[in-house]
């Protein structure tokens, strides 16, 4: 895998994690020039500790460290191989949360999944019917507004109301737990599909890094793998559709807010998706943060507050505009993954997140949890 940052992006303040084969454990890193620098210390043995500081970007810029290799060299290493120094997901002790149905177009696709009960063969006819009735009327709706409430009542009258429209235009956002602490995978890793799924797709998203006080510190990219047939059968199967081995990819690194990057850059982010299959199929997709229905700061406020605390902070997927309808094999059945698909999610300023699609049962099992991290850090004299 080629380096995941452009020359322009290298000017940012980057925070991430690398598995060091020589010490047999994870370390906290930044990028300086084209070097990867280990800045792990007793002051900040984890990414979580840096994210809890008053000025994380200033700390990372000044932190003493040791060059452990070039960006190209380490980015090319295979994740999961304990004898190779390789990049990990950039978060550690943070909870991994996700928002759903935050874009009008993807909201309509969730309604279609529900109406089709997870059957892709029924999706196209339902898409045409629902699109004709509500397609364009949702794009400029402010969720929770009086106008949104009037539209809700009109849709109920027409028989089109859905739980997905409730979280899409109602006052409350959908926020769910995407993955367990330390279970997300980084760039270059295999990403997993539950073997029961036959209709699924990638979801290219911006992921925010948020402190325990609710302060947004920076952003990265994510793939919130979606099992359309499983969730379409019942929204109560969301955990089975979303939280499986290797089903959450985050990376390549967190770009911290500094003089070169801010929340406004997140709001303007343009995400590009490329899926290249071993069968020669290529899918291109796009997600523009300018079209999100709820502002990212509002989504953070709905996640953390007096109603819910996160002592170690959290990573928050912001949802996606991307909803693939292009047929891959069977006419009118749209897109679904095939094993071996190479998925690349990129955005100017945030780099590239690259993963290969496998079954969750065939991806490397998650074995390094919070207890293992604590023991590893203690053994290295960092705790």
From TrEMBL:
Swiss-Prot/TrEMBL keywords: Hydrolase, Metal-binding
Residue ranges of domain Fumarylacetoacetase-like C-terminal in the record: 216-358
GO BP terms in the entry: small molecule metabolic process
GO molecular function, one term: metal ion binding
Domain of life, source organism: Bacteria
InterPro entries: FAH, Fumarylacetoacetase-like_C, Fumarylacetoacetase_C_sf
Keyword Metal-binding belongs to the record: yes
UniProt keyword annotation of Hydrolase present: yes
Family the entry assigns: Belongs to the FAH family.
Protein name stated in the entry: Fumarylacetoacetate (FAA) hydrolase family protein
Organism: Cognatishimia activa
Lineage of the species this protein comes from: Bacteria, Pseudomonadati, Pseudomonadota, Alphaproteobacteria, Rhodobacterales
